[in-house]
Known about the structure:
Blueprint (H helix, E strand, L loop, with lengths): L25 E2 L4 E2 L2 H11 L9 E2 L8 E10 L5 H25 L4 H8 L4 E6 L3 E7 L2 H8 L4 E12 L3 E3 L5 H5 L23 E7 L13 E6 L12 H10 L10 E6 L6 E3 H21 L6 E6 L1 E4 L2 H12 L3 E5 L10 E2 L7 E6 L17 E4 L3 E4 L7 E5 L1 H17 L17 H11 L1 E2 L12 E2 L9 H4 L7 H10 L2
Parallel strand pairs: 3-7, 9-11, 9-13, 10-11, 13-15, 15-17, 17-18
Antiparallel strand pairs: 1-2, 4-6, 4-7, 5-6, 7-12, 7-14, 8-20, 14-16, 19-20, 21-22
GO molecular function: serine-type endopeptidase activity
Family: Belongs to the peptidase S8 family.
Keywords: Hydrolase, Protease, Serine protease, Signal
Amino acid sequence: MKLSFVFFIFSFTVLSYSLTIPTLYRNDDTDLLINKDSAHKFFFNKFNKIDKVAPIYSSELKGREIIPNSYIVVFKKTLDQERLRFHKNQVLERQLIEIDILEKKDPGNEFIAQVKGSGDLLKEFKIGDLVHGYSGIFLPQTLEFIRHDPLIAFVEKDSKVYANEFAIEKDSPWGLARISSRKSLDYADTYDYLYDDEGGKGVTAYVIDTGIYIEHNQFEGRAKWGKTIPAGNQDKDDHGHGTHCAGTIASKDYGIAKNAEVVAVKVLSSDGSGSMSDVIKGVEFVANAHTKAVKEGKKGFKGSTANMSLGGGNSPALDMAVNAAVKAGIHFGVAAGNENDDACYSSPASAELAITVGASSVYDYRAYFSNYGKCVDVFAPGLNILSTYIGYPEATTSMSGTSMASPHIVGLLTYFLSLHPDSDSEFFASGGVVTPAQLKKQVLAFATKDTLASVPEDTPNLLIFNGAGQDLSPFWGNITDSNTDEQVQVHKDMN
């Protein structure tokens, strides 16, 4: 089964004060002078002696690239508001003092430049009632102070993530045709895609990636910019990876759900890389945007999907963020990775509640680069996939990778969500909402079975299928009020 972690995070109300605060001399809530001696006295006397130190997790043993001095901090379940305020103030105060001392001793120190280039000293993230924490650039002394706070569940070394593209090849449009057929394709220059032309209406698909070239003609005005996370980056896809993924989800000619809205959430820079901490902020943005859309009750809104065609080493914090977003109602697809290795070694591929997608070829083989194993849920076309690209409004290119497979599943989730039966249908889901657990279960059950070659025994041999534009009663007929436990059990059974 996918990797899971024992930390369950309980949210708390965020108090409105700036995280980029000036030097503090007094905490008005506690009437406590903020200095080293009084801070230690207050901390240990008021909140009891520390019994243990929060662990530090790292993916560097798997050869992943660690970002120096950068950490992700996740809070425990039980929180107290006074402790929370004090923790933030103390971390910021300690960090500012240590930076000031270091800058006086060594003005050219690389750490100083790193802090100044990172924006806010503390970047907080919060997803519903499930995950709450922050990231930042910390000196060793500050990090030890953080780890000794009993509020902290764990600290994770921030690490690099990369777009899971593999290569750029010549044009070869076949992926859409394959997901609308139970049979293997004969090799040809073009293929027929069978689908319902209402697919995608009312659904918003978030692309957490390098951005989207929203002016591309193929999006017909349905693409918009949501959020840019990395400091110093423009609201622009200057790489092309995100635009390609968005095109597979919802473009006019290359997309599965041709009427959906796509939203750019930029977490990767122009070189296709980024940090785990920025990816978590991207997931937070998507979860909050979806929650807002649900509360607004916009007529015709049918739900939200999200795609992450990126990966890095195992990150408990990122996996928890993705799982929390799924529980908040986001239908999530993630790439399995391109290392020809066990997908359980990377995140977000190991996130339990997302749909993790491996790549297949036109000849119905597991793509030679695709990751595999129990953390993979299903396969989708991922070799030589033609889609939208950057540069000019008609630009296209073909790319390969599990990055190209994941938007196939997200496009399919978007397609099915939009076609959910109306309230007068016998297949109308309870409450009118198809949960991520329900839809994941149905997509896996509806997939074409045992059709791919070179799939290891411990990997589900499933290829996604859209119903070929026919009556979807067989698909909707088994929708039940699945809960998380049922979803996990389905995943185990299919392995």
